[in-house]
Records
---
Amino acid sequence: FITIFDTLGQPLFSSCYGGDGYDAVDGSASNRAGDIRIFGVTSSETLPLAAPWQSAFGGGTDQFLVGFRYP
């Protein structure tokens, strides 16, 4: 899951991302505009996809890069 907190530690935004198999985040990045990127590996055949470079699970593990935007 991804959660954004304010300066007082209160949650502002939270979202889940994953599929039916092993999903691991290897890193993340964000900016002041509210863009969040996470990347990692997955063995999930049901990972949510939008405009993917590879539209079908390749077997073993695949890498992913996903973006979120907080208002």
Note: The mean pLDDT is 88.
---
Amino acid sequence: ELSWVVREVVDSRKNRRRRNHPVEYYVLWEGYSDAEATWEPFEHLQGTAEEKLREFHRRNPQALRDPRVVG
């Protein structure tokens, strides 16, 4: 089974196609180049990368935030 580990969250954006929770995060992955970064919704990061999300928002307090990110 592949295991994807978040190296860093570097940006956030609003995805207008997602109605309920439109915020996505630009994620750099452990073991992969920056060119392989992906936009991910909170659901894909929940439970495994929430500390990385908090770090991102501490560094970028004005960035778009999914309301489910606590801290």
Note: The mean pLDDT is 92.
---
Amino acid sequence: LTNSSSLSDFESEISVLSNLTHPNIVQFFGTYCEPASKQVYMVIEFLSLGSGLTYLQENFSKLVDSDLITM
């Protein structure tokens, strides 16, 4: 993370994700910091269908209102 604002935003997101448990929300497992590069990574559950954004971009026109509501 390049500045204190980015670090603060990242820490806020981690705080929120650590307290969320819902079948429609990606499960957060933790963070990892690569010592050599000082890169910080979020560890989340594997999404077999890819990202939610990609799924919506590829399938939005096929979805009906009831699909969107249950997402």
Note: The mean pLDDT is 84.
